[in-house]
Amino acid sequence: MEQTILIVEDEQRLAELHRDYLQQSGYATEWLADGAEVIAWVKESSPDLILLDLMLPNKDGLEICKEIRSFSTVPIIMVTARVEEIDRLLGLELGADDYICKPFSPREVVARVKTVLRRSSAHPQEKAELLFLDEESYLATLKGKKLDLTAVEFKLLSILAQRPGRIYSRDQLMDLLYSDQRVVCDRTIDSHVKKLRKKIAAVATDVELVHSVYGVGYKYETDLSA
What span, in angstroms and rounded, lies between the C-alpha atoms of 22 and 4? Predict the structure, then answer.
């Protein structure tokens, strides 16, 4: 059964380019140009993924993304010509799974779509076989081997692993790690990540779980075949 990609884009030429490349890759596509039509369509039709432009008539992409996340976990890739970091972070904070900045090649769009769909459909049991986290005992195992983590390192890994592929800024991670609002600098997160990576590498040299996203922050992602 074909997976359906909803293209939300008010530039017809660009939407048709997305449609042609996605259909050549075996996906079914639908197209909406008006932001005000998206929510009702998604509720009725349940697409497998949404390519969501940021700048749309009548309702912008960030507002649409936030509203969709109130009732659906459908993968969303934000598409934007704005390169300011705040827009990227805001889109991801509202629940987007990835973002693409214009200009880009249609092949890149198809590659991102395949990656996000593969990640979202990965069987939970397959993930568990690679990484196991016991929140009550703070026990972490990777490929069946124990990771000797501090409480903060365990919590950091747990936060990232709960949403594979989602990018967290340093500020977001500080807020989630230190709920008591203690004063820490953003480089504290870098230090925790460095130590966490070292402990992961000591257990499994062929697996990288915590990835840096230049200028933004960190994400959890792994090749399940590793």
Answer: 10
**CATH match of 124-220 with 1.10.10.10:** yes
Q: Which two tokens stand for residue 225?
A: 């075949």
CA proximity to 188, closest of 201, 167, 174: 174
Dihedral sign for Cα atoms in the order 83, 85, 90, 95:
positive
Give the pLDDT confidence of 64-104 residue by residue, as tens digits. 998 888 888 889 998 887 666 555 556 566 778 888 887 78
Mean pLDDT of the chain: 84
Q: How confident is the model at residue 224 (pLDDT cuts 50, 70, 90)?
A: very low
Contact 47, 7 (CB under 8 A): no
Which CATH superfamily is 4-121 part of? Response regulator (3.40.50.2300)
C-alpha 160: how far from chain center: 10
Exposure of 205 in the CB half-sphere (CA atoms within 13 A):
0
- Count of CA atoms in the C-beta half-sphere (13 A) of 125: 0
Q: How far is CA 5 from CA 49, 87, 98, 105, 221, in A?
A: 5, 23, 15, 17, 23
Helix, strand, coil percentages in the chain from 3-state DSSP, rounded to 5: 45, 20, 35
Residue ranges, CATH 1.10.10.10, the chain: 124-220
CA 84/CA 33 separation, integer angstroms = 24
The identity of residue 80, as a single letter, is T
